[in-house]
Amino acid sequence: MRILIVEDDPALSRQLAETLSRAGDAVDCARDGEEGHFLGDTEPYDAVVLDLGLPRLDGITVLRRWRAEGRAMPVLILTARGSWPEKVQGIDAGADDYLAKPFQMEELLARLRALIRRAHGHVTTELTCDSVTLDTRSGKVTVSGCPVDLSAHEYRVLRYLMHRQGQVVSRSELIEHIYAQDFDRDSNTIEVFVARLRRKLGVNVIRTVRGLGYRLEAPS
Ligand code: CA
After folding, report:
1. By the 8 A CB rule, do 37 and 44 touch?
2. CA distance between the termini of the chain
3. Is the pLDDT of residue 48 over 90?
4. Domain that holds residue 154
5. 187 and 96, same structural domain?
6. Which of 30, 140, 152, 192 is within CB 3.0–4.6 Å of 35 for a Cys-Cys bond?
7. Of 32, 80, 81, 87, nearest in space to 55 by CA
8. 112 and 147 in one domain?
């Protein structure tokens, strides 16, 4: 999944980016409200972590603009501790969840997972297709109960397809959701990841839809 972090505190921003990258996400960081608003308006994020106290443009304004522009991605806001008016304002502006600073990284990860899950209509942390199971909490993938070792990028591709199960996902959509913005993107690598996934999973759950992309579905 591709996540945008809008946070002006460099240490916290770095910590968030490292935590999310380790959890298998592609992460872009913005240091002020204007840059954050621009990225959220132009790039397809699966979720956003948005600080409210930001230079140039405050978080509430950024959020209101996104929602007014029809940007529907899940947004988790970071609020000052004990400031309930900020939380109310944030939720009214279109936030899906909030965390008060300081917070535990584990809680942030859990809340983001829940937001992404709900955005795709899933109710559990485990995604299943035929004999393949992907646990978004532990990052473990199994086929018929046997663990499968995936590289970070193979995992990202599979997780995205699992979330979009039954729908056709184009190669360009996959690229936009598994790579951060500054990453050197090469659409041919998607084919390589899919080929490796098919080999490693050993079951034909990733279908090629000619000219359109891929679809994950149970073999009929
Ligand atoms: Ca701040």
Report:
1. no
2. 28
3. yes
4. 126-216
5. no
6. 30
7. 32
8. no
Q: Domain total for the chain? A: 2
Centre of ligand 1 to C-alpha 179, Å, is 26
CA atoms of 149 and 28, how far apart (whole Å)? 26
Decide: helix, strand or coil at residue 99: strand
Residue 199 burial (C-beta neighbours within 10 Å; 0-12, 13-18, 19+): exposed
Q: β-pairing, 213-216 with 168-169?
A: antiparallel
Q: How many angstroms does the Cα of residue 57 sit away from the middle of ligand 1?
A: 11
CA–centroid distance, 70 to ligand 1, in Å, is 25
Q: Do residue 105 and residue 13 come from a single domain?
A: yes
Distance (Å) from CA 50 to ligand 1 centroid: 9
> Among 167, 159, 151, 97, which Cα is nearest to 125's?
159
* Amino acid residing at 49: V
pLDDT tens digits for range 131-146: 999 999 999 999 999 9
CB atoms within 10 A of CB 203: 14
Neighbouring C-beta atoms of residue 69, cutoff 10 Å: 11
Put simply, whether the predicted model's pTM sits higher than 0.85 gets the answer yes
